Amino acid sequence: FQLNSSRSLGILDLMKKENNSKVTEFVLLGLSSSWELQLFLFLLFLSFYIAIVLGNLLIVVTVRADARLLQYPMYYFLGHLSFIDLCLSCVTVPKMLGDFLQQGKIISFPGCLAQIYFLHFLGATEMFLLTVMAYDRYVAICNPLHYLTVMNCQLRFQLVFACWCGGFIHSITQVILVIQLPFCGPNELDNFYCDVPQVIKLACMDTYVVEVLMVSNSGLLSLVCFLVLLFSYAVILITLRTRFRQGQSKALSTCASHLTVVSLIFVPCVFIYLRPFYSLSVDKVFSIFYTVITPMLNPLIYTLRNADMKTAMKKLSKKHVASCLLPC
Fold this sequence. Notes:
Elements: H1 2-21, E1 25-28, H2 35-65, H3 67-70, H4 73-100, E2 106-108, H5 109-142, H6 147-150, H7 153-179, E3 188-189, H8 196-200, H9 208-243, H10 248-273, H11 283-304, H12 307-325
Family: Belongs to the G-protein coupled receptor 1 family.
InterPro entries: GPCR_Rhodpsn, GPCR_Rhodpsn_7TM, Olfact_rcpt, Olfactory_Receptors
Membrane topology: Multi-pass membrane protein
């Protein structure tokens, strides 16, 4: 009896130690440990964040306020893209800005899972939407006479809905991969936010299978979408070269700017997620491109250079000024 009771006490002690050693929070190492550099980065990324919020919010409001723009599939998709970029920037940037102003950069385990979920949900949805937008440009340029017939309201809604569903399935898969892992220390993440490659490295078990699953999920998703986009724009460029002469330079300029933004999203993602079994400190620098830089550039590249969008914005501003000048 004494032997059994001592064994039971030993098992209870081990369980207590395991519970005590479970990681409940992570320490983010951030972009820099220098206080002076952190102040500079705070001001820099604060200006980026303000530009992201104002630029994307302006596009969402303009597209929703102008019924004429909503009739065209391109602006319908652009409104959704700006909304995604607005939400995506809110997942990582506010936390990063707060961490710049304090020494201890801590995030709880549930908060870490929430960041992973929303980052991959919105990121994957944006990837799918960019692929849909490439198909939209392909139909508009290669089949212009039937463009509005092919890209009708029902198809547009179905494509956007499929993008959001695809993003949800992808993000849930990522969270399931992480939530089942045991974490008993260390708890330092060499990044400014929580992401799957860094988090699974801290697990107290062999993560070979998990990393292979991560590559087959995030890595292949990024690569396949990127290749589809490149193929779509290649077909568009060939079509422009062989069929159309008038307006070719403008279309080429538009395609080139779109490919630039697409590359800023997909190249860093392919670099980070298609490389299992080790992570580099440079990964967090690449992460800046698709979490901060791209959401800031999308309004400039896709819409603010567009004549129809500029006209709609002027109409909206005149309407707002007129309503403010009217007597109560």
